[in-house]
Amino acid sequence: MTTTLIRKLAEMRELSRGWKAAGESIAVVPTMGALHAGHLSLVQAAKAACDRVIVWIFVNPKQFNSPEDLANYPRTEHQDAEKLAPHAVDAVYVPDVDQVYPPGFATTVSVTGLTDVLCGSHRPGHFDGVATVVSKIFLQTGADRAYFGEKDFQQLQVVRRMARDLDIPIEVVACPTVREASGLAMSSRNQRLSPAGQAVAAGLYAVLRDLAEELEQGSSFHPLEARARARLAAEGFGEVEYLDLRSEDGLQALDHAAVPARLFVAVWVDGVRLIDNIPVAAA
Ligand SMILES: Nc1ncnc2c1ncn2[C@@H]1O[C@H](COP(=O)(O)OP(=O)(O)OP(=O)(O)O)[C@@H](O)[C@H]1O
Ligand SMILES: CC(C)(CO)[C@@H](O)C(=O)[O-]
Ligand code: BAL
Fold this sequence. Notes:
The longest helix has 16 residues, at 126-141. Helix 7 packs across helix 8 (153-165) and helix 10 (204-216) runs antiparallel to helix 11. By secondary structure, this protein is an alpha/beta fold. The protein has two domains: 4-175, 3-Layer(aba) Sandwich (Rossmann fold); 188-277, Pantoate--beta-alanine Ligase, Chain: A,domain 2, CATH 3.30.1300.10. It has eleven helices and nine strands. Pantoate is lined by residues 30-32, 60, 63, 130, 133-134, 152, 155. One of its GO terms (molecular function) is ligase activity. Its EC number is 6.3.2.1. The active site is at 39 (proton donor).
């Protein structure tokens, strides 16, 4: 089978209409490119469940709160095509900017509440950019299902809320975080780590796991948080933007692992911002 490379919305809509008319189910995998095994796991899950799979690749300027981050974001279209080839997806949609944000574009989709915490409070405007582009992804592709990674757990909750609130008929499917052998969550921005930064970053998962184990034995979070922050500093990590224990549903701050809970972290290493989260079983 052949994969169609699409750059124009009209072409995307025509394909999608044809598939729907034939009664086929459609999945979309939204990405910003620089693909790795984490993205490919979403593609595999989508292929297993749907007749047609679209991979969306677009470095969305509206979700970057820092111009340097946008300028430095890896863009690897040729390698992305090579990585997707064995997966034989039906379409790779790499829209031109004006297909997403035509001249005069003046609409923002904003999810309140869930976006006040974690990455929302540290990256002003980020989730407005995400919610706006993801509503467009859903509407442009007409997909029945959309696949997202738990690595971006807050994004997943925001996207679910947005789809429900706007009555977009799509099922949002969560896929587990794919990790390196060290436990480091795969991420496109990891490419920007120096060898020394990679060695430090490799320690993050163990810090989270150790913290989760103590919480699972019934300890309260705040004394453990102070120790974990000291350990991160001693291991060479830079600023910890947040290290929080929160409920999975609603992202409320917790002091004990009492309800389905997760640890969330955002930390700088070597000029690169890493995020991660892991579930914590109730004590
Ligand atoms: N390690 C991973 N495991 C599972 N899903 C992932 C992983 N990394 C990214 N994803 C998911 O892939 C989708 C596209 O993410 P994106 O293109 O931003 O990649 P990324 O690796 O998260 O890059 P970055 O965080 O550096 O922007 C998102 O749904 C994201 O949660
Ligand atoms: C969902 C997304 C593709 C929207 O630009 C992006 O936030 C991402 O890659 O996670
Ligand atoms: N994976 C989340 C996209 C971002 O960091 O902008």
